[in-house]
Amino acid sequence: xxxxxxxxxxxxxxxxxxxxxxxxxxxxxxxxxxxxxxxxxxxxxxxxxxxxxxxxxxxxxxxxxxxxxxxxxxxxxxxxxxxxxxxxxxxxxxxxxxxxxxxxxxxxxxxxxxxxxxxxxxxxxxxxxxxxxxxxxxxxxxxxxxxxxxxxxxxxxxxxxxxxxxxxxxxxxxxxxxxxxxxxxxxxxxxxxxxxxxxxxxxxxxxxxxxxxxxxxxxxxxxxxxxxxxxxxxxxxxxxxxxxxxxxxxxxxxxxxxxxxxxxxxxxxxxxxxxxxxxxxxxxxxxxxxxxxxxxxxxxxxxxxxxxxxxxxxxxxxxxxxxxxxxxxxxxxxxxxxxxxxxxxxxxxxxxxxxxxxxxxxxxxxxxxxxxxxxxxxxxxxxxxxxxxxxxxxxxxxxxxxxxxxxxxxxxxxxxxxxxxxxxxxxxxxxxxxxxxxxxxxxxxxxxxxxxxxxxxxxxxxxxxxxxxxxxxxxxxxxxxxxxxx
Length: 486
Ligand code: GLU
Description:
By secondary structure, the chain is mainly alpha-helical. The chain has 20 helices and twelve strands. It catalyses: tRNA(Glu) + L-glutamate + ATP = L-glutamyl-tRNA(Glu) + AMP + diphosphate.
């Protein structure tokens, strides 16, 4: 399914167009940091009327399974991020990577190195002894090929500049200067003919016509090395924006506990993709003080200047609040589908059955439930009263409201309700008010145990609405379950 196309970027028409790319390594899921990088790359391309390409960096053959690629693609699709053309396989382009490496040798910008592991070890030892960083000393840089030992397959090393500066002119980090003397002649092609990661990325970005690279700032030092290859080939270095990584709320590296999870974990926790998009957009990018904005607004406003230099901190509370906003705003029919899909995905079969069998009732109830939920899972919990089977499971807080005294009041309520001619919110409301008055109680004193008995919880939509939603027979039966149990 992955393609290896785009041999040369010298395609006319591409030159003025913004081309970004998302280049994940398939690890089995789309992690939250990758999702944000993809979102920024996508938003920038959209803003400029350009393209975002998808390159799967699948050179690690053990990890790069078909399932891992599918997980990435699914994660992007769920988040609503689209790319142009087919995903490109980095592994599939190995021959092209080798071709460029050999071209660099021909141009005199790279060379064969025949050093054995033992020689390299010795080199490092000597450097260390001289108080220098342990690295390759350029032994084969200017040596004649005639000195090559027999039967040794060489690696290809790039001739890195020996002096001067390598400057990464970054849209987020500013001008970052690397001293050439600190870069050694790194390997671009291994002795088995496979490219190193550093080299493959450059060749791919060039061939794909990438004009803007947006990625995590853990790649900043790689950028300096990659620039060496661009310069050696005489290729234009793409614009770069290295974004600070996401940290936990305490400022430490993002851990699983802090939210370093795959996007599917967020889906399973009940976050809506539009909420996650909005939240991730704010995590490292800003447009004034705007917290809530549509994806269309984000695309319209997105600029590299809006990317923040400071580390972003992941904040579950903020994400929940944004999610709550999107749940309140969503159309019930859409939420119903998400509730059903989420229940199925997390294996809550009773909810799948209940939601499926009571679609109309759930749709009617949803506008009442939406303001009370911050996640789709909470929404499902809130809807359970509709299809819960009798006798209801009563949660601890609700159980505390069902005392011998309140059960006695519930019995009186049941009697009044049994005598009603009409089962409607106004009729029930009037009858309950009259009963409260006769007993010298506040209406709330009646409503609380009623809610506990009818929903098994202390939170629900208006309890009279609940009674109309589940119907007269079910309401009376649930009430009797609680009153006859005394
Ligand atoms: N495959 C790299 C990663 O997942 C990204 C490489 C790049 O963006 O240049 O971190």
